[in-house]
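Quick board copy: two proteins, each given as sequence then tokens.
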Amino acid sequence: MGSGSVSYRNLKNVIVAFLVPLPSILFYLSFLSAIHGDPSSWSRSTLWTWCYHHPLLLANVLFFFNVNLLFWVIALIQSCHWMIDPYWTVIPVMLVHYYSSHPLAQYEWWRSRIVILLTWVWSIRLLHNYLRREKWQWGAREDWRSTHMSQQYGSHWWWASFFAIYLPHQLLLIGLSLPFYVIHTVDRRLSILDLVAIVVCVSGIVIAYIADTQLYNFVSRNEELKGLGKPVVLILDKGLWYYCRHPNYFGELLWWWGLVVFAWNLGHGWSFVGALANTMCLAYVSKLVEERMLKQDCRAEAFRLYQKTTSVLVPWFKSSPLELKSKDA
């Protein structure tokens, strides 16, 4: 494919990515305009009244139609399910602003602003990592797991993809964002637990950034070595990757569990369900990643040793050769 066609595809995907959330944005702005206008005009509207009294349900409805259905239709047209990846970083930002701006919102101002700022920092970090990994191309490829599932489902993938990709993302993203909803429905003074939550969130962002940067440098270096016809480095076991096999996932989990601490402090510990589901999801993804590594003949032996000596998710000290021998005995 020529550079001109690649540039055209990239520009087209950028335009699509910026236009696709407009239905939800315009609908919500219309709702806010009606609510802040003449009360008698919107109180007679069943739609606006429902939107006013059910902020959490409204978020789910907008997600279903704008992301699940619209993203799915666009993916069918393009024959590529790429858009949900960059929007994983954007949707939480949209949700935190949605919950904070809803007419029924009530909250402690500083807590709200801190969480909004942290969410923007998290989003920028993750979007930067996505674009850097994709060589600053939008929609150049879909996630390898989607490609793998498409091969499994075969001719049924066109409809199965809706249930395999988009509905699970609604459950995960709405679930993970439940602390945003809690933070903007409870007005309570800041406490020491808010500081704990901030430390956990910031630690997660920093760890994920460092781990992703180390992974990016590792992949880039191997690409250079391949280009020079030299042997590649088989396993990334330096930096944070020395202490666990998935430090990027560990950092991501810290971020979401840090948000749960905010909600827990406000008396709504039930909002942990999203973070728990995401933890289980990342545990499963970790398993898929490792199975993929073991299928590469050149890396299999080195990776098996890496598995035996290195913690899976939580950073910890490596097992020594003597410990391995005692376990095998």
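And the next:
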Amino acid sequence: MSLIKHHPTTELLQQFANGTTSPALSLAVSAHVDMCPHCQRALDVIEAELAQAWSLKEEPALQTQESALPDEFSQMFDAIVAEPAERMVETKPVSTSIALGDRQFILPRALQRFTDVKGKWLHLGKLARASLPLDDEAKASFIYIEGDGQIPEHTHGGVEWTLVLDGSFSDEEGKYNAGDFIRCDGSHKHSPRTEMGEDCLCFAVVEAPLHFTSGLSRLLNPIARFMQ
């Protein structure tokens, strides 16, 4: 397994633990944490520190609130706890992979509720995209690049976060493998590409459409929302 070299910043992990990241970005961070033992440990430390700080700050207030609970609430809580086991709602098993062509891609736990994207893929040459139905200003998508495929050189109107789920891709700054978490903005200009015989599946969160910058690819700007 390739070593994960690119991670969310400590500040972003703290925002995630505090619940202040957007729904789409929260998914990206959570999926990376599922794949990255280093960030799992870092997040455990951050959450423990937050829990300790919250406990020291809120314990007196919580004790006062608990002592003031009305009898009706206590009775309702007791009734819920006493519910027979056979009346509990059964949940359906969740799929762990998505199919694309003849490939099956195992997804991290945070993304497994989005495995049903069959028929939702939009294709453009060796690229394919399936957007996810999230109530968020940022757009979240699965992006698939076939082997020996390339996204034309572009920059970004906003921030783009990309998590490599399977395979790898390269750009002008290096190579990125499964688990790598990459942040790009308007200061970055790159052209992601895959090697012959090696495809790549990513999860991307994009604040604004890409802006293509090189040669004939600039003609793609009117349809740049394909990649958002």
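Board note added afterward: The longest helix spans residues 37-67.
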